[in-house]
Amino acid sequence: MEKILMKLALIIDDYLPDSTRVGAKMFHDLALELISMGHNVTVITPAVGQEKKVTEQSVEGVTVWRFSSGPIKDVGKVTRALNETLLSFKAWSAIKENVNEHTFDGVIYYSPSIFFGGLVNKIKKHCKCPSYLVLRDLFPQWVIDAGMIKKGSLIEKYFKFFEQRSYKTANTIGLMSEKNIEVFKQSNQDKYPTEVLRNWADLKPVIAEDSATSFRSQLQLQNKIIYFYGGNIGHAQDMANLMRLAKNMQHCTQAHFLFIGQGDEVELINELAEQWNLKNYTYLPSINQNEFKKVLAEVDVGLFSLSAEHTAHNFPGKLLGYMVQSLPILGSVNCGNDLQELVNSRGAGFICENGDDELLLQSAIALYQSSGLRKDKGSSAYELLKNEFSVSSTTANIIKRLNEK
Length: 405
Description:
16 helices
């Protein structure tokens, strides 16, 4: 059967080269894989403070349309909500002259943000094409679970309106696990077509740099066993959980905790480090993706945390970066999250339930004491990545769904 090549719009609220957020990296890997298959790809994404309504650039061969937007990352909640609400309006206003019935054959969009439903709907109507929603975050449900907004409040209804608009625009919605589909259907019944779509990553690891130019040398961590957390440092992650681990491991003199990223709990973790006088901790703000990959090539253990308050069962995308570099995974999740069974049963690391500080500490010490254990768990993590989370299988699945519509 003849292979059908498509012109695809990929829509996301954050993209390379400057972002270190997992969604940006995943969508870039997706774009590169689509191009390697012969498809034509255009990424549509906001650019904060850009004077022109729209600009076009190439990122490693990927065409990127950047539309002017107000800030939506690392700003106050009201400012972020207002600017995200305007995303679809500003995007369509910027690109509509470039879109006709032949411009796109399909749309792939990413949530968060929940505010792209309007833009996707406009493109679908003009191009008469299907869409696929990569749903990674059940917002606003998780902020309700965390007590950040009240159930039944006006603000919840406001967010729910845009959430439902985003879902209605999708021909298929891909969620990251079976448990997430269960949670999704509890709120939405069977109104929307869903399937499991795992997170994904390119399988090529980065080779560590010469020791003289390495970040270990720059931070004077040459002989340390580095427990690394990279990505969003926010309420949903419950970063105090990992800070308690660092505090409890102070007696392990060769262990060091390195956190890199941005988010609304950066101030919290630095305050805790000062309050507890932690000498085994370093925080750095976000770095570009190339530098981030180099860091991953030099650390020893990949850390993550999910708030115990979650009812959704997320698979943090940062784990893929750890797996690519054959790092053992260490972290904790909300009760019932099927990620715990997946990682533990495959021998890819140690995941416990958030709140079980003693078990998390025991697992961290086991990895600290044995380089052989770190190597075995890391190798298993890479095998799990190959079998479950390859970008090639994800891409083929999305294209199959778009061709069905």
